[in-house]
Amino acid sequence: MENFEPEIVAFCCHYCAYTAADMAGSKRISYPPNVKIIRVPCTGKVDAIHMMKAFEKGADGVYVAGCLEGDCHFKNGNTRAGYRVAYVQKILEELGWEKDRLAMITMSAGMGERFARTAREFTEKIKELGPSPIKQFNTDTHQQAAG
């Protein structure tokens, strides 16, 4: 697993987290290229099915990055997203997965450094956890069919 580079999906709200990612880029603050950003109008629009689909499509880790508490441009979208993340974490645990494969993160538009640091830290956490159980299942199934 030394060569394992996790695939990370980051659902980022347009007003804060996506702007923070843009700021990180403008300031030339690097973060892992394996973090794939999906810009959403508000994290309140990220439903449980979107998070689960990201895992189904091969993500090893997923995080939802939105506005700071009390600063959501759509009043309480980030709070709703936080509840959904907690709900999906319970589903992951019921499936036997590590709930740490999914996280809710908050930041403001001016926090480019925080965005980059979060991307690095989350990538490291997922590296420690290893490939997603879906990837492990697909690898095991493929080896059994070939053998």
Structure description:
The chain is an alpha/beta fold and 147 residues long. The protein has a single domain (8-146), classed as Rossmann fold. The protein contains five helices and four strands. It has a four-stranded parallel beta sheet, sandwiched between helices. Helix 1 links the parallel strand 1 (8-13) and strand 2 (35-40). Helix 1 crosses helix 4. The radius of gyration is 16 Å and the shape is globular. The model has no long low-confidence stretch (mean pLDDT 92).
Topology:
Blueprint: E1 8-13, H1 17-26, E2 35-40, H2 48-56, E3 61-66, H3 77-94, E4 102-106, H4 112-129, H5 133-146
* CATH fold title: Rossmann fold
Uncertain runs are none
Which shape, going by the Cα principal axes?
A: globular
- Overall structural domain count: 1
Order of helices and strands: EHEHEHEHH
Helix content: 40-55%
Radius of gyration: 16 Å
The average pLDDT score comes to 92
List keywords for this structure.
Rossmann fold; 4 strands; 147 residues; 16% strand
Task: Write a compact overview of the structure shown.
Helix content is 47%, strand content 16%. A four-stranded parallel beta sheet has the order 2-1-3-4, with helices on both faces. It is an alpha/beta fold and 147 residues long.
